[in-house]
Amino acid sequence: MTEDRQVDVVVVGLGVGGEEVAGKLAAAGLTVVGIERGLVGGECPYWGCVPTKMMIRAGNALAEARRVDGLAGSAQVVPDWAPVAKRIREEATDTWDDTVAVERFTGKGGHFVRGTGTIEGPGRVRVGDDVYQANRGIVIGTGSAPVVPPVDGLAGTPYWTNREAVEVEELPESLVILGGGAIGVELGQVFARFGVRVTIVEHSGRLLAMEEPESSVLVAAALRADGVEIHTGALAERVRHDADGFTVYLSTEAVVTGERLLVTTGRRARLAGLGLESVGVDPEQRSLPVDERMRVADGIWAVGDVTGHGAFTHVAMYQAGIAIRDILGQGGPGADYRALPRVTFTDPEVGAVGLTEQQARERGISVQVGLTELPGSSRGWIHKAGNEGFIKLVADAERGVLVGATSAGPVGGEVLSALAVAVHGSVPVESLRHMIYAYPTFHRAIEAALQDLR
Question: What is the distance between the alpha carbons of residues 397 and 197, in angstroms, rounded to a whole number?
Fold first, then answer.
């Protein structure tokens, strides 16, 4: 019989959140086993936030160069994907290798195990023939995987997910994207700016359906200006693949074609095969319900995508900090998602925090809305080309505080920081109205949006 190895904590899944928990606990002197079947660090550094933002930076550089005309003379722009692909491979150590990340964890005193961890009971985790007994508890950070819709004819074809899109070394002539959320619109704009004929198909009535309608209008216009064809309110009913590429038949009776097909229709928590049923947790849930201390059940914590609070690196890191403090008995505040920030890194960027206007109204809040367009601001007028955007504020009139905001524009994600502080800190609207806003900045438009609150 295999003898259980006694440890303090077992972390199953070393994505962004799991790696943070495992590393910090090991550095604090606990005996920690970190289990990962893929790459330590998860999706973000290899196929997610980091490489996709490299791609976006490259695409934006092309767009900005094209804006020289009318501002500062003229410029000839010749797109070349080769340096982008090279930079991504250098960042991912060419073969998508996690040696550095593994050494980062073991260097803190952790014990790394490559494999699939299965919970077999309270505190008990098996990896192959080895069994670890966690005396303090288990942390789950197995992340999420792309959701592939059950479209007739799609299975078995060489469709792309975000991974293939990031790894591509030679761009296709044309690309169909299923899904008009953040990932779909970001990648769609990048490829279009490098000369790919892009078509986006979104089943809801607008792109970025989870954000403000104004954001959807702004991003759709930007994409169309880059040559992207957009089909909203359209379902992919059937897919055909042959030597010429993909043909997608839509519910609107439209037919779209592309050399490649990219599926960006969402992500789902990786819970299958974890053995959650052995500790009384339903493995068929879409995500793991956690309390404010990241506890799933007695002796079990979860962080990151598996919790269902947003597939964002910053959420995983935030939750990791809470779980670490709880396991170490350090106390501190629990989770508070009122001011959860998010950024869609299109050009213009769309930053948002807290509730949308619709969400606020659905919660019965007495809503006031203020909106100002960036081109009408001093900085927007100065910026000229590429100055599209707006700031929208959603206030609780009874409490006199902001409950949500959107900052869309050339640096929408950066301007968002001030609005995130306002929402998180419940800063009174009257205090915001009487602040001094630097001139001429994009964030000064917050003042105009406050004046428009009604």
Answer: 46
Q: What is the pLDDT of residue 93?
A: 61
Distance (Å) of CA 97 to CA 20, 21, 41, 45, 204:
19, 21, 11, 11, 38
**Residue 87 within any structural domain of the chain:** no
This prediction's pTM = 0.95
- Residue whose tokens read 């330590």: 40
Tokens 């086993």 sit on residue: 33
Tokens 């999706």 found at:
43
State which H helix or E strand residue 219 sits in. helix 213-225
- Domain holding 414, by residue range, is 341-451
The reported pLDDT for the residue numbered 4 is 82
CB 29 within 8 A of CB 157: no
Domain endpoint, select from 265, 283, 312: 265
CB 185 within 8 A of CB 223: yes
Check which CATH number belongs to the domain holding 286 and give it. Answer: 3.50.50.60
Quote the pLDDT of residue 94.
60
What length is written for the chain? 454
CA distance 143 to 223: 30
Structural domains of the chain, count: 3
Please give the pLDDT value at position 70. Answer: 87
CA separation for the pair 267, 15 (Å, rounded): 15
Q: What CATH number is given to the structural domain containing 385?
A: 3.30.390.30
End-to-end CA distance of the chain: 71
Where the chain has pLDDT below 70, the residues are 1-3, 93-94
Q: What is the pLDDT of residue 96?
A: 87
- How confident is the model at residue 3, as a pLDDT? 65
Last residue of a domain, one of 327, 353, 372: 327
CA 271 to chain centre: 19
Hey, which residues does 393 pair with through a beta bridge? 370, 405
**Residue 427, token pair as written in the block:** 């800063």
Is 63 part of any domain? no
What gap in Å lies between CA 402 and CA 213, rounded to an integer? 19
Same domain for 437 and 390: yes
The pLDDT of residue 1: 40
